[in-house]
Amino acid sequence: MNEKVRKIVLPGEFLSFREGRKLGNYVYQEGEKVFSKVIGIPKILENCIDVIPLAGTYFPKIGDRVIGIVKNVEVSGWFVDINSPYLAFLPLSLAVSEYVDIFRVDLSKYYDVEDVIFCRISKVTKDKIVQVTMKDPEAKKLEGGVLMKITPTKVARLIGKGRSMINLLKEKTKCEILPGQNGVVWLKGDNLQKAIQAILMIERESHIYGLTEKIQKFLSGVNEKS
Amino acid sequence: MKKVEVLKDGKRIDGRGPLKMREIDVKLDIISRADGSAKFSFGNTVAIAACYGPRLLLPKHLQEEKGGIIRFRYNMAPFSVDERKSPGPDRRSIELSKVIKEALACSVFLEDFPRATLDVYVEILNADGSTRIASTNAASLAMASAGVPMRDLVCAISVGKIDDTLIVDLNGIEDNNSEADLSFGMLPSKDEVVLLQMDGRLTKEELLKLLDLAKENCLKIYELQKKVLKGKYGVEDVE
After folding, report:
1. Interface mutation vs chain B, best among A39, A149, A207, A209, most B CBs within 10 Å
2. To bridge A184 with a disulfide, which of A82, A131, A180, B43 should be the other Cys (CB 3.0-4.6 Å)?
3. CATH number 2.40.50.100 is the correct assignment for the domain at A4-53
4. 0.90 surpassed by pTM
5. ∠ CA B142-B148-B151 to the nearest 5 degrees?
């Protein structure tokens, strides 16, 4: 392969000595030595050691903005599938600002089964009980459009530095694109197929240098043809 | 049973030297719907592994608050052996599933995913000895490829003794006619043994020698596993 590829580490590979630095979620320590837990790109900085995984399941973290699908309507809230091993609970108090009499009102009038919502993770306990909230400036119910799933760890690459990649995609394809940090991406617009192709390309080649230029070239080609 | 002459003039029945492994073939991502999958073959022994998860464990009473669990299934396809094997689990496959699962569990950070499960399924498509070894290697690759948090890759190899000669990587005929055979699995970069099963008789010296041989060959398999996993992302050199 000709493209320049970033260095990749495997589970159990030695990264560095700790030397008082902060450790990320995807590394572990044995003695003073720090090793990788997963296959990924090492990030060894002055103040922290971590690995950016290239594959894996999404594990919820407080503050993550995710796209979820409502799975159950309960008496006082909703269970939401957030593409992780754990269902998240959206309590009524964090979903609706008006007063709701739960004995009279059917909660499905707000969110029904299979509705798609963009929400924020507000609480994760040690046992991975997850709570989400709609009390966030960006939180909303997503109407129409399509959903696609990518490797959750590659969402950061899809957004790009200072949102450069996502803005490029939006501008060139004229689609509405909303990536959730759980790897679910919501798209709406006319040029969906090209947008999906570009997103899959980003997912496939996220570990290669100069990806933004490559995507730019790919999308420019799209515009010329259409 | 009539004894087959498996070692003649220092050569084994398939022409290998005593310390030579069979040809190894590894492929990743062979099952598109799995989170991670791998095929691992030692000569004619072919194992495919698929890894799903971590995903929510149901029924709920099986859930563990302190950590996740691994559900491992070792299964031999009916056509994998000379005489058709009746499908479904039997005493042997239940035992092997348990042994391999425990070897893999030594490496996985189960505490990272409480109440969840990691499902690993291995199918033996063709059996010619050392199937548990091929399964362990395939499962380890599938899990690493799926991004499961692990302490290290798991590498395994079989070693044994025939006519007072120590041999590496037993095939089916050797397995049936050996004086002793030993299945060995380890976490190579930690130098920890995670799988050790012996059948037959060995002296203490022979056992120690076999363990050294097994470790040496596990490291070779480890290098190969690293090469394949990095090769998936276009990295060719392995430091």
Report:
1. A39
2. A180
3. yes
4. yes
5. 100
